[in-house]
Each structure stands twice: as C-alpha cells, then as structure tokens.
C-alpha cells in the first residue's frame, strides 16, 4: 500500500516523532512522509496513539516507525498485519493487527477494527 493511516505514535510525543521521521527519511533519501490524521486511538494497556497518515514505501515506513520509537523514547504502533485466511475473505477486509514498540523494543500487540472509517482497539496483549 502506498499510503495508509494505520501507524500511530504516542499522543504526547507525536509532533516531535513525526518531525524526526520526515527529517530522517529526507536525509536518508527514503520514500516516506508522515502527517497527523487528526484523530486518536485509545488503548487500555498502551495509552493513546495519534494516528498518522503516511505515503511512501512499506519497508521504509516500518523501519522509520521503529527507529522513531527508540530515538524519541515514544510508544509507536506499527500495523498492517492481517490474519492468514483464504483469498475471498481477505478481499472483504476484517481485523488488522499492530505491533507496539516502546523505546525501540516490542512490548505488545493490538487487534484493531474499523468503525466509522477510524481504527479502534479491539484487543490488547502485552508481550
């Protein structure tokens, strides 16, 4: 996917993290640009995430979001993972999963669903 709104940054650190991610991508000549979407996703175990919209390449996006976690000492959510299922059910969407990183280390997983075209946390697991 060339653009998505399925990454999140800890709300209190979102502005600094997004600035850092965009500068990092530009400096390293990677195809990636992030901006806020204007809405948040609340979780019980991980706090509130500012959902970000991004354009670029998946490998660069995943790499940059993880680095942002350690460089900005922020929790980030890297999603875009789906259940393995047959092709027909995959075409109709459904649950998506995200990995939560804190200070660069994997700390949990979030199950998400869409409601009114926004992501909501459906399940949360600590690792």
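Q: What amino acid sequence fits the structure above?
A:
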């Amino acid at each position: 996917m060339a653009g998505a709104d399925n990454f999140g940054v800890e709300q209190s650190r979102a502005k600094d993290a997004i600035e850092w991610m965009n500068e990092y991508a530009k400096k390293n000549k990677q195809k990636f640009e992030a901006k806020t979407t204007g809405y948040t996703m609340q979780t019980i175990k991980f706090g509130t995430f500012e959902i970000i919209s991004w354009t670029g390449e998946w490998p660069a996006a995943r790499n940059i979001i993880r680095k942002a976690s350690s460089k900005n000492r922020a929790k980030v959510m890297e999603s875009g993972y789906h259940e393995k299922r047959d092709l027909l059910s995959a075409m109709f969407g459904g649950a998506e999963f995200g990995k939560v990183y804190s200070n660069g280390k994997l700390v949990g997983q979030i199950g998400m669903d869409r409601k009114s075209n926004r992501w909501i946390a459906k399940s949360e697991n600590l690792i």
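Q: And what stands out in the fold?
A: Residues 22 and 33 are 6 Å apart (CA to CA).
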